[in-house]
Amino acid sequence: MGTFACYTGEMDIPEEKKDCFGQQMMKLLNYGGMMQLEQVSLFGRELILLNPVELSKEGKVNFWYNYFEESSWESAGFDANNLTFYSNKIGSCEFSDVILAAYMLYEMYIEAPGFTECNGEMIDPQFYGGWLNHILGTEFSMEKRYRLWENAEHIAFSRMDYDDSFSKEELRDLIANEFEIAGGTELADLLYILYGTETLETDHIIPGSYPDDVYRCKKALISFRKINGDHFLESLLYFLQMDRSKREKNTDTNLALLTELSMFLPARVFVYLAAEIDYKPFWELWKEWKDKVYHDERMKQYASKKLQKQRRERRTSIIPKIRTAAFLRQDNWFTFYDTPKELIGKGNYYLSDDDRIFWWDGTDEVVISDEMNTWLTELSDRHRRLMDLPDAGCGDQFKGADFIRDFIVLLDEICDYYKRIYPFKTMFYDFIQNSEKKEYRAALGLLQILYEENKEEGKVIKYAKGEWDFVSKNVTQNIARLRLKRYLSVMANVKMRKKYFHF
Prior knowledge:
Blueprint: E1 5-7, H1 18-31, E2 34-42, E3 45-52, E4 60-66, E5 71-79, E6 84-86, H2 94-109, E7 116-118, E8 121-122, H3 125-136, H4 148-159, H5 168-175, H6 179-182, H7 185-195, H8 210-228, H9 232-240, H10 244-249, H11 256-262, H12 267-277, H13 282-289, H14 305-315, H15 324-328, H16 370-388, H17 403-418, H18 425-433, H19 438-453, H20 455-458, H21 473-476, H22 479-492, H23 494-501
Antiparallel strand pairs: 1-7, 2-3, 2-4, 4-5, 5-6, 7-8
Helix pairs in contact: 1-2, 2-3, 8-9, 8-12, 12-13, 16-19, 17-19, 19-22
């Protein structure tokens, strides 16, 4: 049991788009918080270091941890050489969201049918495509999803080995219930296949409309069946195999109406009506016949030019952008489950850009709140005052030969008390290499102070027992713990660190 995701089509990226695709994949994994973990053992302590996903020398990356979810899942990975992506169990929170966005990137790039699925169900591309458009600056639309017939074929043919076919639920998922946008003859055909055409006999049909032509075809096929008896399907296939010129020259009076209709109706209409009349499974029959029958019809335009334009514009409209914090926001059934009474009334925790300061680069991708700016300014003042004191306000701690030991001990104690507070690998080695500089020693002195002065408010972390994913985010993301995590993020983001702490 568990949650699994996949892309159902071929993962063949066009040659001219491969470099761009690889870069975009790595960017979405990075900004989505996917991390590799590295363990360090020194002085009898073991630390876990965070390392944002990056390609190895071989052009591959494997990962299993998400910075925002703070949970490990089964390994996932990307090979930039052949542009393949894989995943195993993905959970149902931030890790899952980013994995599904990765598969959605394939769906948006590849013209051939294929869909992002989670536990066998198609995923709505608007949410994931919206984040891709934001983070990558792309202009993806849902246009591919509205190629209804080839999509339905892809789904139905891929399920036949499992005695399954295209379902009503899959049609709804395919078009995200946007029947007005999806309207047209392909949608009508799929609805007739799913629900049958019995209502055509009682409906008020407008002459010259698509339902009228389908109904005329049905009546012609019923007459054709009476003539051919047990050879009905065999005779129909013989007719449908004729190319346009042969059909036009056909003088068989029994085929006159069928010939007329075949000039503008797709062969699939004849096949699904025949399957209904003869009680045959349509998709099995269509898979056998589709490459044998004609495809030279000249379709009528049943919709007005105005309606066609409206549908085309809406199908190709760019999916609205969704900012990263909104994309990764969690609000499912378990998110705030069993919040302890100490935290009730303080408001629920939702991810904000303040929690993404490691990714701050001066652009509007990460927008720091006024509250966060005030807090960092205050910390900067405290840091400066510590540097003005003898030994950077740290006494003998964080100085000389004992620096590395004291540094590791402090990080280990913070992680032990607040749980899953891991420093970034770059920050860890940067501080070790600059142990003699008072700016770094004062920064660790301030970290020690924050660790101590937030203990009382952060003690609610004691409720984080058992499975982390089933603990209320109000507990795991309590403000005291967030202060430590955010401070370490600032120390790891050199550009932001210089902005506030000037080193």
